């Protein structure tokens, strides 16, 4: 009886500029997965999945369906005060916590991989009111207002959205196909998510160097 050796799984190289993003093999979906946190972004032209958990934050899933390249960001606040132009070039830049930087960076990275702006389609998630009681500002609504205005002003095509309400959300995005799996998490998880977001908001205040498949 002959024995067959099984080659160990080798993680494919991350796209240039996104080497810092945590990636792992997801046995449930049988796919390499990039997990992004607030202030992070990931773009891929391959068969990968991008995942994140949102409270008041917003994630925009942007894709060129012809080039079959796309990505997802995760921003915490709509605008950086005093921002006058978009010039950020690093995926690790803390300014990606702000919607204006995060959207421009995501779109530009997709264009670098062969996407065209006139073909881009967008799916938007998050903006839940999960920080109630921890701040008197409805951060989620501000984020929703920003992304709505941004999509309209840039002439992008909104394919799907699930925003607002009081629930945290888990989002799984497949940029090659544009498919999304989204789960509204139980309200019991809201305090946990809001605590993490409030901690992140506090750290930011300090100076530093169409097809949604429910599952």
UniProtKB/TrEMBL annotation:
SUPFAM superfamilies (UniProt xref): CNF1/YfiH-like putative cysteine hydrolases
Transmembrane intervals: none
Enzyme Commission code(s) on record: 3.5.1.44
GO terms classed as biological process: chemotaxis
Highest taxon above the source species: Bacteria
GO molecular function, one term: protein-glutamine glutaminase activity
Keyword annotations: Chemotaxis, Hydrolase
Catalytic reactions on record: L-glutaminyl-[protein] + H2O = L-glutamyl-[protein] + NH4(+)
InterPro entries for the chain: CheD-like_sf, Chemorcpt_Glu_NH3ase_CheD, Cytotoxic_necrot_fac-like_cat
Residues annotated as signal peptide: none
Family under the similarity heading: Belongs to the CheD family.
Role: Probably deamidates glutamine residues to glutamate on methyl-accepting chemotaxis receptors (MCPs), playing an important role in chemotaxis.
Name of the protein: Probable chemoreceptor glutamine deamidase CheD
Organism phylogeny: Bacteria, Pseudomonadati, Pseudomonadota, Gammaproteobacteria, Cellvibrionales
Protein encoded by which gene: cheD
């Amino acid at each position: 009886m002959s024995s067959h050796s099984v080659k160990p799984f080798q993680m494919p190289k991350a796209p240039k500029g996104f080497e810092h993003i945590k990636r792992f093999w997801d046995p449930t979906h049988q796919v390499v997965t990039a997990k992004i946190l607030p202030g992070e972004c990931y773009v891929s032209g391959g068969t990968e999945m991008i995942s994140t958990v949102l409270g008041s934050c917003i994630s925009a899933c942007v894709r060129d369906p012809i080039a079959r390249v796309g990505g997802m960001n995760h921003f915490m606040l709509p605008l950086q005060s005093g921002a006058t132009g978009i010039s950020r070039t690093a995926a690790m830049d803390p300014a990606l916590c702000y919607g204006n930087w995060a959207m421009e960076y995501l779109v530009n990275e997709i264009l670098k991989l062969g996407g065209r702006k006139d073909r881009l389609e967008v799916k938007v998630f998050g903006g839940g009111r999960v920080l109630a009681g921890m701040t008197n500002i409805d951060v989620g609504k501000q984020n929703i207002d920003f992304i709505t205005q941004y999509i309209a002003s840039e002439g992008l095509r909104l394919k799907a959205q699930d925003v607002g309400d009081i629930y945290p959300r888990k989002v799984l995005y497949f940029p090659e196909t544009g498919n999304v799996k989204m789960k509204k998490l139980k309200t019991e998880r809201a305090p946990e998510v809001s605590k993490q977001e409030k901690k992140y908001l506090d750290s930011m205040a300090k100076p530093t160097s169409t097809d949604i498949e429910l599952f």
